[in-house]
Amino acid sequence: MDRQERIDLIIDHYENPRHFGPLQPADVVHSGNNPACGDLVTVYVRADGNGGPVALAFQGQGCTISQAAASMAMEMLHGLTLAQIDAATAESLLERLGPDIAAARQRCATLAFDAVKHACQALNDRSIVSPRLVHADQLADFAMEVRDGMAGVNV
After folding, report:
1. Which of 37, 65, 93, 125 has its CA 20 to 30 A from that of 5?
2. What own/partner pairs with CB < 8 Å and gap ≥ 24 does 121-127 have?
3. Which DSSP helix (H) or strand (E) runs through 28?
4. Distance between CA atoms of 30 and 117, rounded to whole angstroms?
5. Which domains does the chain show, CATH number per domain?
């Protein structure tokens, strides 16, 4: 895939995100942020309980790379088992984004992938008994707090 095809893919995922919106019911809800860029991603995970496929969804706001990569990560990991997600690495996601883009924006690119890994680990550990639901207005409030906290910070 050449650079322009990668850019087109990123724009397509940003404008038409896959697996976007709350997943009801979710077994685990996990949020991650990137204060340096103002990115915020919340992932929803539902497992079948028997080691079978996992359903994933996300909500978020932020830069094009973080939101497109979140969509790409959901597409890549949705339907895998917890064990397969545990064994997965971000390398194939970073490869799809392209080495030049991924190298410059790695934290943005892996935010949702890392959130899914943490949520699935929590599910494996059974350390989260019930999901912490995050509603859109709470998500917006949190994003404003992050932005307000970053006022005057040069990054």
Report:
1. 37
2. 121/86, 122/28, 122/30, 123/27, 123/28, 123/45, 123/47, 123/82, 124/82, 124/86
3. strand 28-34
4. 10
5. 3-144 (3.90.1010.10)
Which helix (DSSP H) or strand (DSSP E) does residue 45 occupy? strand 39-47
Take residue 79 and report the two structure tokens written for it: 């339907």
More confident position, 152 or 20: 20
SS3 for 78? coil
Cα–Cα distance, 67 to 77 (Å, whole number): 15
Condensed to tens digits (0 to 9), the pLDDT of residues 100-154 reads 888 889 999 999 999 999 999 998 886 444 444 444 555 556 666 666 665 555 5
Element (H, E) at 141: helix 136-149
